[in-house]
Amino acid sequence: MRLLPVLILLAALLPQPASTQPAPARPADPRVELAAKIPGARPEDLRATPVPGIFELTHGADISYVSADARYIFSGDLYRVAEGGDFPNLTEERRHDLRAKLLSGVPESEMIIYGPKSPKYTITVFTDVDCPWCRRLHSQMADYNRLGIRVRYMAWPRTAPKSESWLKAQSVWCAKNRGDALGKAIAGEAIQAASCQDPVQRHHDLGRQLGVTGTPGIVLSDGELVPGYVPPDELVQHLQSLAAANTAAQAPPAK
User: Fold this and answer.
1) Where are the beta strands (DSSP E) in 14-146?
2) Which segments within the chain are labelled E, that is strand?
3) Is 174 marked active-site?
4) Annotated catalytic residue, options 45, 62, 143, 158
5) Which of 134, 135, 152, 174 is catalytic?
6) Which domain holds residue 58?
7) Pair (35, 126) in one structural domain
8) What is the pLDDT of residues 45-101, one digit of tens each?
9) Burial class (CB in 10 A: 0-12, 13-18, 19+), 149
């Protein structure tokens, strides 16, 4: 009888025969089948929404919605009915996320940056050197920087490739001192023509993906797109409000 516990222990240590039962199959990703029904779509372009049977379809920061059977596609903003009568715009929140993600893939070495030593905020501005409102924004750069706003410029000529504005943008981004060249070009001064492996086309394509339709196109760090010129004082007030709202949202609930 004393050997029984030892035999039980040895049996437990012996290799066990493999199970003849097949492993449970993983559920299929519904996005794969759905993407196959939509020309040009990839599974990663699709995401389930809070609405059963409706998927989000993204292209850059452009968002549309598609039914699970791919028979219906529609555009428009999706709002959530929340307690207290609020209606958060889920589509716009998603656009913010997509813009911020797309911009994060651009190295700052491709940008022209003006900023204070210790910035409080960073904005990305798609600019055209021949745009009057871009000229006004740039003329107030010292005020933006004084208020703690760091400005990152990307090229977005409003005219077609090989146009005068496009060639100016290429010369600015190929200059030895890009900041100096941009300041002169945007003030209407002549700059030396230059060529290189410039990022102008990439910047322009990205701006379109983000939803930029005119200049200056200002994208905040959270991905919000602010179309057009905004005075320094007004912009910093908006940035302060966003920072305060973000802090309040992250605060633990009061007991």
Assistant:
1) 46-48, 54-59, 62-67, 73-74, 112-114, 121-127
2) 46-48, 54-59, 62-67, 73-74, 112-114, 121-127, 149-155, 217-220, 225-227
3) no
4) 158
5) 134
6) 30-88
7) no
8) 999 999 999 999 999 999 999 999 999 999 999 999 988 888 999 999 999 999 999
9) buried
* 120, 66: one domain: no
Give yes or no: residues 234 and 185 share one domain: yes
Domain harbouring 62, CATH code: 3.10.450.70
Q: Which one of 53, 88, 123 terminates a domain? A: 88
What CATH number is attached to the domain comprising 135? 3.40.30.10
Q: Would 14 be classed as within a structural domain?
A: no
Q: Give residue-wise pLDDT tens across range 26-40.
A: 778 999 999 999 999
**Which residue among the candidates 99, 131, 135, 152 is catalytic per the annotation?**
131
Which tens digits make up the pLDDT trace of 129-154?
999 999 999 999 999 999 999 999 99
Which position among 31, 95, 99, 128 bears the catalytic label?
128
- 35 with 117, same domain: the answer is no
- Tally of domains within the chain: 2
At 186 the pLDDT is: 97
Residue 69 falls in the annotated catalytic set? no
Distance of CA 155 to the CA centre of its chain: 17
